[in-house]
Amino acid sequence: MTDQGNPADAAGWDRAQPYLDAAEGQAEGVAHEAYMLGCLLESAWEKMGPASRGALLAHPDVLMTHAAAQGCDEGDEEFKAPTSLDDLKSVAARHGSDSEEEHEVGDIQAYIVAAAETATDAEWDEITGSAQVQALLSGAAPSP
User: Fold this and answer.
1) How far apart are CA 11 and CA 116, in angstroms?
2) What's residue 110's pLDDT?
3) Helix, strand or coil for residue 85?
4) CA 131 to CA 43: how far, in whole Å?
5) CB–CB of 1/108 below 8 Å?
6) Residue pLDDT, tens place only, 14-69
7) At what angle do helices 85-98 and 101-118 cross, to 10 degrees?
8) Average of pLDDT values for 100-105?
9) Labelling 42: which of 73, 87, 111, 127 has CA 20 to 30 A away?
């Protein structure tokens, strides 16, 4: 997923880890974990400003994950860079359905770590203070 040896990646990982762990710990199967992580990603997207959203979509880990989920490399002609939250979620879902469900979870985890890295401190505080995220941490995780 991310290279935790890179200080920037480590910071995103450290920020995101409690929420990734909460989703994994409460999930009633892979599909439920993907749903909970998708809710977290949606919350992040809603709270991030345009600059942070742009940085998320252009983040190297997001581009690499998005390309792998499409079965190509970033430089390939068929690669379509993500332009929206819907792009991220739909490609991750397709990756899970085309291969193994766990791939959808891994893709969304990579996007969340990148969001944690690219969000400003104020945005991250707003994201993690949202009702959806607090429910995840408290054990009242959302269900589809």
Assistant:
1) 8
2) 93
3) helix
4) 9
5) no
6) 999 998 998 888 888 888 888 889 989 999 999 999 999 999 999 998 999 888 88
7) 150
8) 85
9) 73
Residue 77 is given by DSSP the state: T
Distances (CA, A) of 49 to 1, 43, 59, 61, 124: 24, 12, 15, 20, 11
Q: Where are the domains of the chain?
A: 13-138
Tell me how far apart the terminal alpha carbons of the chain are, to the nearest angstrom: 25
- Cα separation values, 85 from 14, 26, 82, Å: 23, 24, 8
Residues contacting residue 10 through CB under 8 Å, at least 6 positions apart = 4
CA distance 17 to 15: 6
CA angle 144, 130, 34 (to 5 degrees): 30
Do residues 97 and 123 touch, judged by C-beta distance below 8 A?
no
Cβ neighbour number for residue 40 with a 10 Å cutoff: 26
Residue 72 vs residue 97, higher pLDDT: 72
Q: Which residues, other chains included, contact 131 with Cβ-Cβ below 8 Å and sequence gap of 6+?
A: none
Q: Which of 86, 32, 31 has its CA nearest to residue 57?
A: 86
